Amino acid sequence: MGEITELLTLMIPAMVPFLLAAQGTVLSGRAGVFNVSQEGLMVLGAAVGFLVSFKVGSNTVGMAAAFAIAGVFGLVLAYMTTQLRLDQFVVGLALYFAALGAAGLLYREVIGVTMEPPLIPTLEDKPIPLLSDIPFLGEVLFDHDLVVYLAFAISVAIWWFMYKTRSGLAFRSIGENPKAADSLGINVTWARTWSTVVGSGLVGMAGAYLPMVYTGLYTEGMVAGRGWLVIALAFLGGWRPHLVIAGAAFFAGMEVLALRAQVAGIGIPHQFVLMLPYVATLLVMVFAFRWARQPSFLGRNYDRESRLVG
């Protein structure tokens, strides 16, 4: 029981980067904008969050800065796809490379070359009174840092908005049939714009969480492909916020198991162990794509003037 408790306790914070980034991807995706720049935005969010936290001395400010800079990239994506009607996939890839380059440039300009890399304080656990005292569940669910609680709260809020409000119903209709939504007076351009900005901001926050919770260090490879897994997670969850939570638990569980196997020294090359989460993702996606559905107009632009989509 102790080993299981420890694994589950480690899995909850490991879910946070997947949760934040995937919910951000789902948010814009349900409006029809397919963002593929997650890996780059997470790297940029990690760099900006780390640098601002290091200079200002506040992880909260660093997290907000990561949200803001990724949101700016989201605004660029929204403008180029809703106003200029450029291909969403091509623009997303361009922003991915731009974000990667910006992250490396900012770190070198602010920190430079040092013998000892700078450190920031990692996030402290904030047990929830009374709930953290519950046997087993208290330790697993209610004894983590504040960003963990925020990530789950955001997930619930997005689900509530989409499925329990009239505005959410109208919002979801944009990703299914923007022409019909437009004819009902729904502002398709505005909905796609704000959801892409906010969604991209959440992806940036996901990246900023990595140096703040694990080592207090920033390294260029620390995102380690999570941004690409997030895209798979959105499809695996059928672009539904509540199912994304379950998918994030799966990905985080595989990640924790791989790290535990590597530390345990089970005689398997560590490169193979690190490959396991991605192999598991491929296997799951083979079966998931048979039943998972996506918004009908995902990745397609809408031309309000000619009432054509493409």
Automatic annotation (TrEMBL):
It is found in: Cell membrane. Coiled coil: none annotated. The keyword Transmembrane helix applies. GO terms for cellular component: plasma membrane. Pfam families: BPD_transp_2. It comes from the Bacteria. Its main location: membrane. GO terms for molecular function: transmembrane transporter activity. It is a multi-pass membrane protein. Keywords: Cell membrane, Membrane, Transmembrane, Transmembrane helix. The keyword Cell membrane applies. InterPro entries: ABC_transp_permease (IPR001851). PANTHER family: ABC TRANSPORTER PERMEASE PROTEIN, SUGAR ABC TRANSPORTER INTEGRAL MEMBRANE PROTEIN-RELATED. This is Ribose ABC transport system, permease protein RbsC. It comes from Nocardioides simplex (Arthrobacter simplex). The lineage of its organism: Bacteria, Bacillati, Actinomycetota, Actinomycetes, Propionibacteriales.
